[in-house]
Amino acid sequence: KYCSPSSCGNIHNISYPFRLTDDPLNCGDPWYNLSCESNLTVLHLYSGKYYVQAINYNNFTIRVVDPGIDKNTCSSIPRYSLGPSNFSEFLDPYKLTTLMWCYPRVCLSTTPIVFFKCSNPVNSSMYVDPSTCYTGSSTNGTTLSQPKSRYGYVKASTTKASDFEDGCSIEWTTLATMSYEYQNGSYQRIHEAMAYGFELEWHEVGFSCGGWSFSSNCYPNNIIGFFKSLFEWIGAQRWAVLFVIGMFFTGRCILGVPFLIALMIYKCRRRHLSMYNNIEDFLQSEKNFIPIRYSYSNIKKMTSNFKDKLGEGGYGSVFKGTLRSGHFVAVKMLGKSNSNGQDFISEVATIGRIHHVNVVQLVGYCVEGSKRALVYDFMPNGSLDKYIYSKEGSILLSCKKTYKISIWSSSRDRISTSR
Ligand SMILES: Nc1ncnc2c1ncn2[C@@H]1O[C@H](COP(=O)(O)OP(=O)(O)OP(=O)(O)O)[C@@H](O)[C@H]1O
């Protein structure tokens, strides 16, 4: 219904329900096919081909003319025979109907034009002698092409059985849209009306599918009908559908990848944040016991940018540092920590609380993002294990002293060797 209009010859507005035979299948209604032949728009009616003169979409009428009629040649006669009975009397969406228009002063109707052949001359006002048209005078009903024994007449109105004159038979009929006053006029007027053509009406009103409709097809109102019309629609719009699917997947790729990256970053940050939260919560709850908190820049400063490395333990490297007071410290950088900061928490929670002459003192700590450090008193003689597990011959401690230290030592090995 929404296809752009087609055109052929003088007819430029061929649109729904009409369609040209070459138009796309989804355009127009197949019941209203027109063909374009030698630049003339043709309507096929029964076995005849009629030239379309005009299509009026406001009053739903199409005007056609018989190709045999030439408006300048009075002797031209219709090529095809057609009568009112060929058209529906009802408002039928699939059939054209004859029509009658009545204006305030005049009524126009699609009138049957009946061509008679009679064996005797007829004296009736309804029977018009066509020979008057091209001879200028009556030749008693004979036309130039007719044998003298037969008399030709034309009657422009609906013909009942009682209208038949003796010895007359119908040769052929055609239609012309004309007013009533033309019906009783001369053959010239009747010929003019035939050259104007006849109007037929189509009916869009009352066209209801009652189910799933697609283009001019109607499908039953059930699931199968729905899918049939859906697939037909997809078939007709396949380029648009392919475009939308393509856009969908392209969009997914373009937007999906950054979205995935953003999601991963978010998840990662959440994990780290929860770890930091664990530590911060612990520090808040234990603030009465725990030692000084240093910033990471403090740590860098006190270790002169991690210049002097003392050793490497299970959790990271230990560097020598100096506090502002001049006091030496050992700074343990917790690098290989477990994910939720438990190692840091347990170290601070245990060592931070212990104040014993034999246990190395935790002076402070640093928590800044993923950077964590523990600051201990510096033991100038190094780790106890250096003495306990030293190679044979280099033992500096007597057995008695080693035993004494062992008794005093806690589960941790940070015990002052200076004692
Ligand atoms: N307070 C300190 N004073 C001087 N040196 C230290 C101090 N703490 C650690 N060190 C040095 O750093 C090294 C590593 O210490 P760290 O405590 O990290 O390791 P560890 O005791 O061997 O193992 P773990 O990580 O399981 O405790 C020690 O061997 C020692 O030489």
Automatic annotation (TrEMBL):
Keyword vocabulary terms for this entry: ATP-binding, Glycoprotein, Kinase, Membrane, Nucleotide-binding, Serine/threonine-protein kinase, Signal, Transferase, Transmembrane, Transmembrane helix
Transmembrane segments annotated in the record for this chain: 239-266
Source organism, top-level taxon: Eukaryota
Start and end residues of each Protein kinase domain: 304-419
Molecular functions per Gene Ontology: ATP binding; polysaccharide binding; protein serine/threonine kinase activity; protein tyrosine kinase activity
GO CC terms: membrane
Compartments where found: Membrane
Residues reported in the UniProt entry to bind ATP: K332
Membrane-protein topology: Single-pass type I membrane protein
PANTHER family hit by this protein: RUST RESISTANCE KINASE LR10-RELATED
Name of the protein this chain belongs to: Protein kinase domain-containing protein
